[in-house]
What we know:
The complex is a heterodimer.
Chain A: E1 3-16, E2 19-32, E3 36-40, H1 47-55, E4 63-65, E5 70-73, E6 76-77, H2 83-89, E7 94-97, H3 101-104, H4 111-122, H5 127-140, H6 146-149, H7 159-171, E8 177-181, H8 189-206, E9 209-214, H9 217-223, E10 226-231, E11 234-240, H10 241-246, H11 251-258, E12 308-309, E13 315-316, H12 319-328
Parallel strand pairs in A: 3-9, 3-10, 7-8, 8-9
Antiparallel strand pairs in A: 1-2, 1-4, 1-5, 5-6, 10-11, 11-13, 12-13
Helix pairs in contact in A: 4-5, 4-7, 5-7, 7-8
Chain B: H1 2-29, H2 34-39, H3 45-55, H4 61-73, H5 87-122, H6 127-141, H7 144-158, H8 175-209, H9 212-219, H10 224-262, H11 267-276, H12 280-308
Helix pairs in contact in B: 1-12, 5-6, 5-8, 5-10, 5-12, 6-8, 7-8, 7-10, 8-10, 9-10, 10-11, 10-12, 11-12
Bound molecules: adenosine-5'-diphosphate and magnesium ion.
Magnesium ion (MG) binds at residues 47-48, 181-182 of chain A.
Amino acid sequence: MTALLEVKDLEIKFRKDKEMISTVGEISFAVNEGEMLGIVGESGCGKSVTSLAIMGLLPKEMSQIGRNSDILFNGTSLTKLSDADYRRVRGKDISMIFQDPMTSLNPVLTIGYQMKEMILAHEKVSKRECWTRSVEMLKKVGIPRAEQIMDEYPHQLSGGMRQRVMIAIALTLQPKLLIADEPTTALDVTIQAQILDLIKEIQRESNTAVILITHDLGVVAEVCDRVVVMYAGKVVEEAPVKELFVDPKHPYTKGLLGSMPTLINDQNRLNAIPGSVPLPEEMPQGCRFAPRCSQAMPHCYTAEPPLVSLGNSHATSCWLYDKEEQKYG
Amino acid sequence: MASYILRRLFGLVPVLFGVTVLVFSIMHLSPGDPAKIILGPKATEASIAKLNTQLGLDQPLHTQYITWIGNVFQGDWGRSIQMKMEVLPLVAERFTATFILTLASIIIASVFGIGAGIISAYKKYSWLDRSMMFMVLIGFCLPVFWLGLLLQIVFGLNLDWLPISGMYSAGQDGFWDMIRHLILPAIALSAGAGAIIARMTRSSMVEVFSQDYIRTARSKGLKEKNVVLIHALKNAFIPVLTVIGMQIGFLLAGAVLVEMVFAWPGIGTLMVNGILARDFPLVQGVILFVATTYVAINLLIDILYAIFDPRISYK
Ligand SMILES: Nc1ncnc2c1ncn2[C@@H]1O[C@H](COP(=O)(O)OP(=O)(O)O)[C@@H](O)[C@H]1O
Ligand SMILES: [Mg+2]
């Protein structure tokens, strides 16, 4: 498998009182063609910011990408693209759906308009064809009365329907990569499963690569092939999904798994990890997870652990495993 | 949409009733006996009584109102005491001039106000934003008549580019001649409204730019022009429209001053003369006309709301 998207040493800084504060620190990961990659981590770990960086949508005046950072898409460096060229990539090659379908669609434009403008931004086609393709797409994502809905406004649809519309818009031009940032978080539980199934189905059918961002490992277990676990702006573990659930390495991943509600353990997060994600301006020295880690050693508070491969496409950044590597060679 | 407009129209009935009652009461709220005031201090008892009967002022109030409103609906707005003419055609003719002046001002104020507001919001905190908002502050603070005089001195007297008074040059009635006469008074009148529209546009656009659907629009690879002028502006426009609607009222009031400064033959000059001459039917006519126009403009704005925001007609 060849990598479709390669994120290399991505560092994202935000301006805070004239200072640039590093929010995401030199992370690397790749997405293969047709693959479904999950990115998990608690709220505030930098998942959304990372996806916006890939889309080239970080606020220009407020933020900055590290000098050694690079994002390669099909071998082309996105970070070096001009505004006009980046615009041609967005929507056509990489598209995105967002967490809240209530606020992500424009309230004063019809669904039809919001569907058609996506096509017209990238292709020269007749109005008629635009309309036909949009309706087709709406039907494909399971929207009944697709023709009528073209003339309706977002507020006339339910949350689930809106998210279907968002998915339809994002997939209209058959992008090679879809980034879904918490696409089900704002929806009812029953609708969540439907939307996940839809994304999975479309991904299989059209061989689109998907980055599914979530704070919910349950979602990952259901649909992803591979998982990247992020903590406080760092990748702490990366593994195929089965491997991660069977043999998690990083104490943070174990913590996340432990706090998952299961049939036996549905007592609202009895085993939740104590403490909370540090703010970018208050990043601890050494391993960023150390202050919350039950297995932290003195060493952890002073030096940052590197991401170390453990074989089987499994990697983690934790001193516990680094030692093991040294021991067994 | 049709039912929304119908509902708005019905809503106007009490408003218009209130307006007519108010206009009707002007005659009766003014201190003293109207007939006495009209005829002046040297009038005899007999002539006052005669005028009272002639004006129907000896009838009970509600009868007077019904007669008056009946006449108003039939187009009989009374006769101007001073000008010895029918009020309605007189007011209508003069109103055309005021309408042209106000319309020109609101167009200038909207175009420059909205344009400046959009650029300021898009380039928030840049020097461009700051200098534009500084100019807006000046535009807001300048008194209308002072700005009018300044324009007259600079562009009329010193540079001699444009005429400074009246609506047409002597012996002419061409369209472009009128436009040349219109420019300075329209600018003088538009400054304050333009400043307020610019500020409202800026704050409304700044708010909209932070919304999720703007990020969605950009994620589709739309041109910035479409993101700003379609996705953002269409959402930001409702509060701007409200401000424009409110400004039309102020502009009609401000027109009185500007018309005096530039000798623009509009309703403002007519009204001032009417008040000074205690020409009640004329003053009533002017107020009724302006108030009705104002109500009609507000109806138009309400309809525009529904066009710009589809959620409104469902509420
Ligand atoms: N526009 C911004 N300006 C400054 N800081 C930001 C901005 N957007 C996000 N951040 C910071 O980036 C960090 C990661 O945020 P985010 O990517 O939204 O987390 P996640 O999606 O994992 O919940 C947060 O600590 C947040 O404060
Ligand atoms: Mg997020």
